[in-house]
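Good morning C.,

I know you're traveling, so I'll keep this short. The sequence:
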Amino acid sequence: MLGTRSIKTTAKARAIDLAISMVDLTTLEGADTAGKVRAMCAKAAHPDPADPSVPKVAAVCVYPDLVAVAVEALGGSGVKVASVATAFPSGRSSVEVKAQDTALAVSAGADEIDMVIDRGAFLSGDYLKVFEEIAAIKAACARDGDAHDAHLKVILETGELTTYDNVRRASWLAMLAGADFIKTSTGKVSPAATLPVTLVMLEAVRDFRAQTGRMVGVKPAGGIRTTKDAIKYLVLVNETAGADWLDPDWFRLGASSLLNDLLMQRQKLATGRYAGPDYFTLD
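The C-alpha cells, ready to paste straight into the viewer:
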C-alpha cells in the first residue's frame, strides 16, 4: 500500500534531492584500486559537476585498506568515510581479528564502521555471543582524545535470517549492544534490501526510541536501483518511523547504481528532457 503513493512535481524534486543526500556510494570489490576510490569520492562530493545545486551524498564506503585514500580525497567535503570491517561479508573470523580490523579502519580516519553479525551464532540461538561481539566492535570504534568516535552500522544480512521475527529480534539485539545504525544487507546475498524487511526494522527503531529515548538509524542496502524505489523507501520511513528519520544522519540508502538514476530523473524534472545514461560517470 505504501509503495503505491504518488509523489509528483515539487514533492518529487525534494524527494530526489533528499535521496541523493542519503546515498552511501560504495565500492566493495576485490579489484578496487586507489584510483577507483578517488574517482568515486569526486563523484560523491560533486555528483553532477555541471550542476552545483545537486547535494553531495552522505558517505562513501570502502574496504579498510582504502580508508586513508578516501579520507584524503574527501578532505573538507563533508562526505563521511565508511568502511566495512569484521571479515566482511561472511563475518567468519574471531572477535579479536574483527576488533583489530575495526581499530585499523578507525585509526585511518573512518567516520563509520559497517560490521556484519555472526549469522551462524544468531541462527543457533547464541544471542549472547552476537551481543558481545557487537559491543566489542562498538568499543573498537572509540578514538583517543577529543575526536568523535566512529559510528557503528550493524549489518543483519536479513536474506539469511529467514523470518521477520528474526529480523526484529536481531534489530533489537544490535540496538541494545550499542549500534548507531542497523543495516539490512551486505549486498552480496540475495535477497538484499526489501520493503517488508525495512518496514520491520523501522518499526523496531521507532519502538526502541519510545522505550529508551535513543534514536538509531536504518540503512537498506542492495537492490535499490531506481528513483521510484528510493521514493518508496522515503514514504516508508515517513509513514512508519516518522519525519525525524528523514535525514541522512538517520536513514541511508546503500545503492551505488541508484545515484545515476536519481541524477537523470532530477535533470528530467528541471529541463523536461532525459539525459542519456552516458551523461553521468559509471560507478
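Safe travels,
E.
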